[in-house]
């Protein structure tokens, strides 16, 4: 007697060969052993996968990238060795060809992000470029991006610039009394209040030197070391302030503000420059240090992720000023820089913006901590680890509110 099994659903797709005869799981009754060129339907059945349309024969191996200005003006970018061939989607006609610096071997390490008629293209070996659609289909241009401000970083290695210490002198007049307080301002950023100590006692001189150095060292715009203060006066209280090492720079002249005083006029101080400094810091992106390797737009900022020399750092531009990465005074609309706080230096593979800004690295996945009512700012920026699968250098895809990405082994698709 023959028996038949009625199977009305194939929603679980093609099952692994090791699932054969697994009668104990429900997936067995909703899967198939082989399914070529098909798409599973949510209703349970299957249909043939959509076909492809012949447009043209490529001149070289390459990579296809969409360029969508709006629903009516869509283009297909065919990247190949040292060029982009641009096809209009609704007519399938080659409308323009643009020369690029990207070789065939570099094409799949490119990353890109588009806003309106401009696409930003990045590769760690090349200065970022923008592809701009002009007034007509045949008017695409590719040009290097000149930043309004490039972030600075102290690499502190053999290739770093040789620093020259900045020395400024502050001369407290005799009108200052012990216990009066003042603040110093360095390029718009003010220190905490500093209590004045007279130079009658050696211990007081040392303590006053330390107070000035500590107050300046705590400013967000100085380095994390290198500031020293030396008392040099014999009659008046005169101090030389040296900005060396990580804090060396061509600083603007310090400003002095009295906070609390006991006399009628308050203490006064004269500040002069003794020596002009040269910083050890340098642009974080350059031909020698490498260029950004990933890019996206999010919350009115242009975001770059990773470079050859800083593989696990993320930079966000000023709000609505995409090519300006000046941190300024770390105000809410100014540039953001954050380095992943992980136990490994894992290079960033992708940046994507959705409900949150997500960071995919070769060693794990992370999101920027934020709320709907609170955008990312220099003051609240934080990155929270999510999973530790690691990502392959393939752009994640948004499906149903989640990001699908290929695990770094290339053998698993994760959400």
Please write out the topology.
Elements: E1 38-40, E2 46-48, E3 62-68, E4 74-80, E5 83-88, E6 93-99, E7 111-115, E8 118-123, E9 126-133, E10 140-144, E11 152-153, E12 166-172, E13 181-186, E14 189-190, E15 194-195, H1 202-217, E16 227-231, E17 237-243, E18 255-260, E19 269-275, E20 282-283, E21 294-298, E22 301-305, E23 313-316, E24 336-339, E25 348-353, E26 357-361, E27 365-368, E28 383-387, E29 397-399, E30 402-406, E31 413-414
General description of the model:
With 415 residues, the chain is mainly beta. Helix content is 4%, strand content 36%. The longest helix is centred in the middle third of the chain and has 16 residues.
Which strand order does the major sheet show? 3-4-5-6
Give the overall silhouette.
Answer: elongated
Q: Give the amount of beta strand, in percent.
A: 35-45%
* Radius of gyration, taken over Cα atoms and rounded to an integer in Å: 30 Å
Give the N-to-C terminal Cα separation: 47 Å
Please state the structural category. Answer: mainly beta
Tally of alpha and pi helices: 1
């Amino acid at each position: 007697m023959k028996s038949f099994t009625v199977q009305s659903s194939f929603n679980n797709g093609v099952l692994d060969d090791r699932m054969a005869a697994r009668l104990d799981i429900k997936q067995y009754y909703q899967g198939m052993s082989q399914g070529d060129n098909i798409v599973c339907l949510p209703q349970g059945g299957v249909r043939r996968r959509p076909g492809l349309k012949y447009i043209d024969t490529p001149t070289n191996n390459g990579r296809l990238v969409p360029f969508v200005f709006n629903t009516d003006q869509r283009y297909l970018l065919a990247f190949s060795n040292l060029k982009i061939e641009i096809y209009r989607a609704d007519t399938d006609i080659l409308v323009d060809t643009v020369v690029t610096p990207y070789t065939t071997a570099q094409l799949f390490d490119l990353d890109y992000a588009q806003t309106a008629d401009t696409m930003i293209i990045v590769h760690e070996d090349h200065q970022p470029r923008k592809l701009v659609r002009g007034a007509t289909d045949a008017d695409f241009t590719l040009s290097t991006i000149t930043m309004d401000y490039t972030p600075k970083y102290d690499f502190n290695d053999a290739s770093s610039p040789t620093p020259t210490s900045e020395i400024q002198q502050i001369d407290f007049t005799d009108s200052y009394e012990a216990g009066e307080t003042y603040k110093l301002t360095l390029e718009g950023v003010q220190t905490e209040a500093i209590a004045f100590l007279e130079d009658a006692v050696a211990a007081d001189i040392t303590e006053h030197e330390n107070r000035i150095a500590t107050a300046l060292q705590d400013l967000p715009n100085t380095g994390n070391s290198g500031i020293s203060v030396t008392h040099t006066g014999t009659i008046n209280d005169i101090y030389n302030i040296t900005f060396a090492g990580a804090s060396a720079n061509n600083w603007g002249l310090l400003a002095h503000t009295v906070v609390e005083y006991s006399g009628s006029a308050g203490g006064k101080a004269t500040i002069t420059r003794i020596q002009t400094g040269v910083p050890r810091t340098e642009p974080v992106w350059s031909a020698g240090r490498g260029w950004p390797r990933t890019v996206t737009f999010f919350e009115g900022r242009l975001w770059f992720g990773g470079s050859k020399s800083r593989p696990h750092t993320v930079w966000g531009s000023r709000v609505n000023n995409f090519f300006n990465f000046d941190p300024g005074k770390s105000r809410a609309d100014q540039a953001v820089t954050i380095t992943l706080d992980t136990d490994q230096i894992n290079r960033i593979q992708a940046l994507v913006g959705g409900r949150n800004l997500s960071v995919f690295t070769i060693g794990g996945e992370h999101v920027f901590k934020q709320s709907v009512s609170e955008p990312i700012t220099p003051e609240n920026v934080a990155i929270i680890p999510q999973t530790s699968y690691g990502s392959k250098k393939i752009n994640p895809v948004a499906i149903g509110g989640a990001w699908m990405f290929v695990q770094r082994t290339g053998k698993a698709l994760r959400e």
